[in-house]
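Risk register update: the risk of archive-format incompatibility is retired. Evidence:
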Amino acid sequence: MLEAQRHYAETYEGGPVIGDYIKDEKAARIIRMVTNNVIPGLFQTGAYARALFKARGIQEIDEEVRKWLARQAIISGRGAPNITAFIDQAAFLHPPAPEVMAEQVGKLIDLAGLSNVKLRIIEEGAPWHIGLDGDLTIFSVNGTRRAYITGQLGAQAITGANSADRLEAHWEDISEIALPSDRSLQLLQMIAKELTR
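Archived output:
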């Protein structure tokens, strides 16, 4: 278990669910994510993850970052899942450091070039959306849908069919306001230029 997982498990009620989240992430054929103020863990650079772990008071940061980044092998490995991520532009407005965010945006631009990854930015000034109420991940694993709400307290599994249906509907609503992939890539490129001035 990652120290980050132990930290959640020991500090917050329901923390051990993060282990199930990572297992589902590894087994999923389709991954759909909505994040607001933080870049999705699956897409983070080492420096970005390090800044988050430090802010969360995680010890043994180097080893934890190594384990955290090992999750990313699924993105381009054999049988890689189809991943669609909606990232609110707010995630780029509070960088841990400009150079850290510049590297992070560069990685997102590279990921956007993969055939199995779709990055869509929810532009600053977009209408209010339910995704602002918390990050959401929906995995399709062996024909089964598994939904999680994630954040500072780890990952909370959503097991009720009605709740999962509502989250699915929220996903569809958010897809209506997120920029298409090509315009999202243009926005990322613009952000990258601003960060490297």
